[in-house]
């Protein structure tokens, strides 16, 4: 526990200044986090890992993270869709040149891993561009959910939420997480209000808490599938970048989907 607290404090001391300042230093910082997160995910499936496929994945990730306006500087009408098509073609071509040592399944894993990580971190940059309050709201609601789930789970947790995926999570913990998130979300609205009614913020907070927990369960699912405890060891006591960002990677795209941001 002491190590977890020390790591959390150190991580916040690094993370918070970038978030508060924003602009290109924050975008560059996100590029670093996303690259580490993708490498963590690729390391889970050793069969898919190769120098060429990893290089292609990282390059495609960096392109995903570019703002849409970046493509306007190039001639030839370059779009995200065309880059995606090229990436898929290169991966499939590599299955041939590797003489099927790099298989169709490996290509699929590389593709979905890169898009999963890329989209989440892309919306982190976009959310900060929209305003610091949006990033803080998402972070506070996620942290409140995690904290509430932990304490409610320890106090009242009897029935498991999804033991095949995450044996430590309970139904009481999940509900307690939503309740804690609501308290924090409504408090946030009172001190740092959005242009929405209190009832709208309450509904959005509930949805964010639920989606964040789904994101966490998805991370638990692929870690259990690949038989690893943590995505990495960069953050002692916490695991890797994906261990700390799994909920956020799902929440931020969701906030865009529902037009909150």
Mean pLDDT: 90
Specify the number of helices: 9
* Overall number of strands: 2
Oligomerization status of the protein chains: single chain
* Biggest β-sheet strands, sense, barrel: 2 strands, antiparallel
Strand content: under 5%
Task: Give, in spatial order, the strands making up the sheet with the most strands.
Answer: 1-2
Silhouette: globular
Helix content: over 70%
Structural class: mainly alpha
* Domains (count): 2
Question: What does this molecule look like?
Answer:
The longest helix has 28 residues, at 198-225. The radius of gyration is 19 Å and the shape is globular. The protein has helices spanning 2-21, 23-44, 51-65, 80-97, 104-130, 132-156, 171-191, 198-225, 241-257, and strands spanning 160-162, 166-170. Helix 6 crosses helix 9. It starts with a helix and ends with a helix. The protein is mostly helical. The protein folds into 2 domains: 1-130, no CATH class; 132-261, no CATH class.
